[in-house]
Design brief:
Elements: E1 22-27, E2 33-37, H1 42-51, E3 58-64, H2 68-79, E4 83-88, E5 93-98, H3 109-112, H4 120-129, E6 131-135, H5 148-156, E7 160-164, E8 167-171, E9 180-182, H6 188-200, E10 204-208, H7 214-225, E11 229-231, E12 237-241, E13 249-252, H8 257-269, E14 273-277, H9 287-294, E15 296-301, E16 304-309, E17 319-320, H10 332-339, E18 345-349, H11 359-365, E19 369-373, E20 376-380, E21 389-391, H12 395-407, E22 411-415, H13 417-423, H14 427-433, E23 437-442
Parallel strand pairs: 2-14, 3-13, 9-10, 17-18, 21-22
Antiparallel strand pairs: 1-22, 1-23, 3-5, 4-5, 6-8, 7-8, 10-12, 11-12, 14-16, 15-16, 18-20, 19-20
Helix pairs in contact: 1-2, 1-7, 4-6, 5-6, 6-7, 8-12, 10-12, 12-13
Bound molecules: uridine-diphosphate-2(N-acetylglucosaminyl) butyric acid.
Length: 444
């Protein structure tokens, strides 16, 4: 559960206006049409912001999404001594970070508890300051989400790490050194953390079985622009030449592939047509053929993707989530919401996070016919969902429930909006601009 926001904590991000006590009311049935601008990717933006810690020079990030996780991380960085300059508006923020005077102070629990990506501060602070002290990271309650790969990799690079009392205390009194690291599983966060640490370490680092999510290549591209030597961006073997003396850089955050897939489903669910501006098909990996098989037609233009329901309609489709380029776990719940009204049945297997079916009970409140057996959810398509009061339990569950509400008959009231706001930049407002009947209202 995300604690309610203390607005003073978010002073670093003046565009963010927390709005507690509201829920989202969706009257389903409207066809979505028009242009939906896809924002910069949350999961690329967060590690890029942490990368700025590695250099005393200015790092400017364009196309940052205006979401709560970005605001919270900005606040954490500011507490570590990073100077921040914001410009732009909710549609595409620019943030300039200056980490010329860092204080490696203990990072507090309440903020870190909100965000898994805070674990990336461990590698970056160790590399830059030789020490780091932070609570075990939080984030969505979607599984165990250990940090053993992060810790083992950093220990192999010479860090002394102590885990006790819910805190991570780390030191590298003699600095970090390069290492050969084999990840037991291609972890996105561990790959990013070790890459960040390796850039300033003495000597070269090899990361085998590295995750290949496009957000990792986006981070690597920014680090390379800052002067780092990194190769292997297209595969699962990354090499980092350490000891770089980094400069500043200007980098634009890649478009959000999860928002892209989610909104493609929204177009199909409402039998509308959306132009997903800035979206890039190649970032969807296995999502492209899977969405096509399920009845979502996607057409590339030079500047985005046009999404609509294929003429044959939505068709039940089996899939399993996998590391990239496999089908993204972050799209599992939105696609399940779409398939809830497809013709026929779908078997959906979640292989990345063991508790990522918490949206199923909520979809059932809307009339979906879904049963879960172990790691597989069996979805039998129904003709129509019916609006109800539902609660988001995590970020992607929130997006799934918005989709379900858009297609449902009658009114859906969605609680737990802090989850939606964590990861999406103005989703309700952008949907309303495309014809959805959706509004934030004070909870009765
Ligand atoms: N794992 C461990 N030990 C570790 C690290 C990971 O056991 O030290 C396990 C995890 O428990 C999980 C698997 O390895 O079962 C993969 O986890 P990974 O480390 O790849 O995930 P993450 O870095 O914590 C990021 C995204 C998630 C996204 C996953 C998978 C960010 C901030 N988060 O998490 O995004 O689902 O990769 O693609 O980038 C979301 O945006 O909604 C979200 C949860």
């Amino acid at each position: 559960m995300i604690p309610s926001l203390d607005a003073s904590l978010l002073a670093a991000s003046p565009w963010w206006r927390p709005d507690p006590g509201t829920h989202l009311v969706i009257r389903g049935g409207a066809r979505l049409t028009g242009t939906y601008p896809i924002s910069g990717a949350k999961n690329a933006a967060l590690p890029l912001m942490v990368a700025a810690l590695l250099s005393p020079h200015l790092v400017t990030l364009h196309n940052l999404p205006a979401n709560l996780d970005v605001a919270v991380l900005a606040n954490l960085l500011q507490r570590l001594g990073v100077g921040l300059g914001w410009s732009g508006g909710r549609a595409g923020l620019t943030l300039t970070l200056c980490a010329d005077r860092l204080h490696p102070r203990r990072i507090e629990g309440a903020l870190v508890g909100r965000m898994r990506a805070s674990i990336l501060l461990l590698g970056a602070m160790l590399a830059r300051c030789g020490e780091a002290s932070l609570p075990m990271p939080g984030g969505d309650a979607i599984g165990l989400r250990g940090i053993d790969f992060h810790v083992a990799g950093l220990r192999a690079m010479g860090a002394e790490i102590d885990l006790a009392g819910g805190m991570i205390q780390a030191r590298a009194p003699r600095g970090l050194h390069g290492a050969e690291i084999l990840l037991p599983q291609p972890s996105v966060g561990a790959t990013q953390n070790l890459m960040l640490a390796a850039v300033l370490a003495r000597g070269g680092t090899v990361i085998r079985n590295a995750a290949r999510e496009p957000e990792i290549a986006d981070l690597a591209r920014c680090l390379i622009a800052m002067g780092a030597g990194i190769t292997g961006l297209d595969g699962d073997l990354l090499t980092v030449q350490g000891g770089a003396s980094l400069t500043g850089a200007v980098h634009s955050v890649m478009p959000d592939r999860i928002e892209t897939g989610t909104l493609a489903c929204a177009a199909a669910v409402t039998d509308g047509e959306l132009f997903l501006e800035h979206a890039r098909a190649e970032l969807l990996g296995a999502g492209m053929p899977l969405l096509a098989a399920a009845g979502v037609a996607l057409e590339e233009t030079g500047t985005g993707l046009v999404a609509r329901r294929a003429s044959a309609g939505l068709i039940g489709t089996d899939f399993r989530t996998m590391p990239y380029p496999g089908f993204a776990t972050d799209l599992q719940s939105p696609v399940m919401a779409m398939l809830a009204t497809a013709r026929g049945a779908s078997a959906i297997t979640e292989t990345i996070f063991e508790q990522r079916f918490r949206h199923v009970d909520e979809l059932r409140k809307l009339g979906a016919d879904i049963t879960v057996h172990g790691r597989t959810a069996w979805v039998r398509g129904v003709t129509r969902l019916t609006g109800a009061r539902v609660t988001a339990t995590d970020l992607r569950a929130a997006a799934a429930l918005v989709l379900a509400g858009l297609g449902a008959r009658g009114e859906t009231a969605l609680d737990g909006l802090e989850h939606l706001d964590r990861g999406y930049d103005g989703m309700a407002e952008k949907l309303a601009a495309c014809g959805a009947d959706i509004r934030r209202e004070a909870r009765a």
